[in-house]
Write a structure and sequence with these properties.
Layout (H helix, E strand, L loop, with lengths): L3 H6 L1 H10 L4 H41 L3 H37 L19 E6 L11 H7 L3 E2 H8 L5 E2 L1 H21 L3 E2 L5 E2 L1 H7 L10 E3 L5 H7 L11 E3 L4 H5 L6 E3 L5 E10 L18 E11 L4 H18 L4 E5 L11 E9 L4 E10 L3 H6 L2 E3 L7 E2 L1 E9 H11 L7 E2 L13 E2 L1
Parallel strand pairs: 4-9, 8-14
Antiparallel strand pairs: 1-11, 2-3, 5-7, 6-7, 9-10, 10-16, 11-12, 12-13, 13-16, 14-15, 17-18
Helix pairs in contact: 2-3, 3-4, 7-13
């Protein structure tokens, strides 16, 4: 969400920011300021009419005391006319305020000043690179490896759930579980994150707070108690999110973790607050038709260790760099080659002001693929959630800054381990860091 006062004071910054996201910044700013003027005019007109009505109401008593019935009648007529004007201005105020809020809620965050310009991933900037890609002759992809071992079954998953699901069995299922536990242990024991077991279903307000709603509703899965999907959509009168008792399956634990501070004033002395969770994530992938349809890269359901930080405005930039380091540490421990990319404005997510992606090397593709995205959202989410902080002795509260990142996506890490640790016989070696989690197991297959 955006601060209308900041936009009034520095409209050019918003024009440039939205232009860099591929939007028409000047047109949007002009539309917002026009609605803002209309809203304030309606508020002023309402206040003026209310003051005139109060004054006229008091004068009626004076006119009657003076036995001036004509003046009393005139004043009573004026009060009725002002009542009608109040109702009209109130309707204009409500409608204009709603239009303004809806427009502001639909617009992405403004990129930080040091974010590169560019329309897509081709303008992203490599910050650093770690490790040397494994030299593997004729590498197999993870799908061929998993199916060849009889431990990965996409057909069984499709029979029960449709496309973009997988069944993992035996030692491969154990490896996935070990990866999640390893990541969680490193983030909690070494990096100071507090483990949380959050809800997997949330209200629309929570999804709005972190920016998934209303703009990205098509990418989410929803559950409505008492209604099956077909009847639910046919019975819905109005927007889907208005259905009674609707819940959304979380697309990432970022939603649950960040909303822990919604509508709260958190003591500044307790910040930064660092939270982590290992949960399933659910994504409809409505905008990913035809992309990565083979294998586990883009699934409707997957596990992820999420990192969330709540900070003061002054802490967020340093915390962002720290969070990226916490995610990188997992890849280093697993000895997986990767690179760290600073995303350009056009490739960043809706709520982010600055984002780093970690991309891991996949031998079968001969390229790096995203495995983590770490973003500083500034006060963008906090304004949508009304999440504030206040130092001891201070009178006023200010919005917190929120950050989120993957530490890491478990399924994609499993893919990376399988491909980078494969041998010529199709076996998969277990990385040294995971040996304590898989006692007695050095290879799969």
């Amino acid at each position: 969400m955006h601060d209308i006062r900041a936009l009034r004071e520095n409209p050019e910054a918003y024009v440039k920011g939205w232009d860099s996201k591929g939007l028409s910044g000047s047109a949007l700013v002009a539309q917002i300021l026009e609605l803002d003027v209309k809203l304030r005019e309606a508020q002023t007109a309402w206040q003026t009419a209310q003051a005139d009505r109060n004054a006229a109401s008091k004068s009626i008593g004076h006119a009657k005391a003076a036995k001036d019935e004509a003046e009393a009648s005139r004043l009573m007529k004026l009060v009725e006319d002002l009542k009608t004007k109040l109702e009209a201005e109130s309707q204009i105020e409500r409608a204009t305020g709603q239009d303004l809020n809806d427009l502001l809620a639909s617009l992405p965050n403004i990129p930080a000043l040091d974010v590169p310009h560019g329309a897509d991933e081709h303008a992203n900037v490599e910050v650093r690179r770690w490790g040397t890609p494994f030299a593997i002759a004729r590498p197999k992809d993870h799908t061929d490896l998993g199916e060849g071992l009889g431990l990965m079954d996409f057909e069984a998953a499709a029979r029960m759930s449709g496309a973009r699901f997988v069944v993992l069995k035996g030692e491969l299922a154990r490896l996935e579980r070990a990866l999640g536990q390893f990541m969680l242990d490193v983030q909690t024991r070494e990096h100071g994150y507090t483990e949380v077991s959050p809800p997997l279903m949330v209200r629309t307000e929570a999804m709005f707070g972190t920016g998934q709603m209303p703009k990205f509703g098509d990418d989410q899965f929803m559950a409505v108690p008492g209604l099956n999907t077909a009847e639910g959509f046919r019975a819905a009168d109005g927007p889907i999110e208005a259905l009674p008792e609707i819940r959304w399956l979380i697309p990432t634990a970022e939603v649950s973790l960040t909303n822990l501070v919604r509508e709260q004033i958190t003591a500044e002395e307790g910040l930064p607050m660092r939270l982590t969770a290992l949960t399933p994530s659910f994504r409809a992938e409505a905008g990913a038709s035809g992309r990565d349809t083979r294998g586990m890269i883009r699934q409707h359901q997957f596990y992820k260790v999420e990192l969330v930080s709540i900070t003061t405005p002054g802490q967020s930039e340093a915390e962002h760099e720290r969070m990226v380091g916490c995610a990188e540490a997992i890849l280093k421990r697993l000895e997986l080659p990767f690179r760290t990319m600073l995303l350009c404005a056009g490739d960043m997510g809706f709520g982010a002001k600055k984002t780093y992606d970690l991309e891991v090397w996949l031998p079968s593709e001969g390229r790096y693929r995203e495995i983590s995205s770490c973003s500083n959202c500034g006060d963008f989410q906090a304004r949508r959630m009304d999440a504030r902080t206040k130092a001891a002795g201070e009178k006023g509260a200010r919005f917190v800054h929120t950050l989120n990142g993957s530490g890491l996506a478990v399924g994609r890490t499993l893919v990376a381990v399988m491909e980078n640790y494969q041998d010529e016989d199709g076996r998969i070696a277990i990385p040294q860091a995971l040996h304590p989690y898989l006692p007695g197991l050095t290879h799969i297959g």
